[in-house]
Design goal:
mainly alpha
Length: 156
């Protein structure tokens, strides 16, 4: 697979993440002026969880404390994140150096956090996410190095 194809694959992954998050933001906005504790209780019941258990109870109580302004702020934050991911995807697709830098930095930011989580709670999902992020960072750094050197190696 060529480097261009790999970078375009990363662009598709970033676009997918952007679309998923914008859908989540839309879902959050649809909850404004709704009875959030009742919705949380229905979700807990739908998942066949005991509403009196510790984690489901925390979820239901947190839903009761979330104000409409909090939902709007969460949705705005999600929209901003989504726009960043979609801009990154666009830049990667059209081979813009700024997008490669953005992808390398944004991927690298998560690596220490993922390592910390993996050390304290090792699992296959965390390992997979860490590996994917490290691979993406390596791909972007390599693309930047190749671009800086030129396609035929270092200048003499």
């Amino acid at each position: 697979m060529s480097q261009r194809s790999v970078i375009r694959l990363v662009a598709l992954v970033e676009a997918f993440k952007g679309v998923v998050v914008i859908l989540a933001a839309t879902g959050l906005l649809s909850l404004v002026h709704k009875d959030l504790p009742a919705i949380a209780e229905r979700l807990v019941a739908h998942a066949h969880l005991n509403p009196a258990a510790k984690i489901p109870r925390i979820f239901i109580e947190a839903a009761g404390h979330l104000q409409n302004s909090g939902l709007v702020l969460l949705a705005l934050g999600a929209a901003a994140y989504s726009l960043l991911r979609l801009a990154e995807a666009y830049g990667l697709w059209y081979e813009r150096a700024w997008a490669e830098v953005l992808a390398a930095v944004s991927g690298a930011v998560y690596v220490p956090i993922e390592l910390f989580e993996l050390i304290h709670r090792p699992n296959w999902l965390g390992s997979t996410i860490l590996a994917i992020n490290v691979i993406i960072v390596a791909i972007m750094v390599r693309a930047l190095v190749v671009q800086r050197r030129g396609p035929h190696g270092p200048a003499t």
